[in-house]
Specification:
Blueprint: H1 2-6, E1 11-14, E2 20-25, H2 31-38, E3 46-47, E4 58-62, H3 66-83
Antiparallel strand pairs: 1-2, 2-4, 3-4
């Protein structure tokens, strides 16, 4: 999942050792905006704007099954491409 996320334009992935990955949006899209774009596909990401030291560009995703991770990547790809 980490490599797939890192391949998305406008997404920076931070290494982690738990079953989730912290990501930063490097374009103009916010985590709240991305969250809204993913809701119709029934995908929920964690907006990390309330985390100490982070802002609205950061979000977290869980590492799940291969099929679920592939679906997440496809919907993220579409959502980030729509933004520019």
């Amino acid at each position: 999942l980490g490599l797939g996320l890192a391949a998305l334009p406008g997404v920076k992935v931070y290494p982690g050792s738990a079953n989730y990955l912290m990501c930063e949006l490097t374009g103009g899209l916010t985590a709240a905006g991305l969250q809204q774009r993913l809701l119709p596909g029934k995908i929920l990401i964690r907006d990390c704007a309330s985390f100490y030291g982070l802002d609205g560009r950061f979000f977290r995703v869980a590492v799940r099954t291969v099929a679920e991770n592939e679906r997440l990547l496809e919907l993220l790809r579409c959502a980030t491409q729509e933004h520019g």
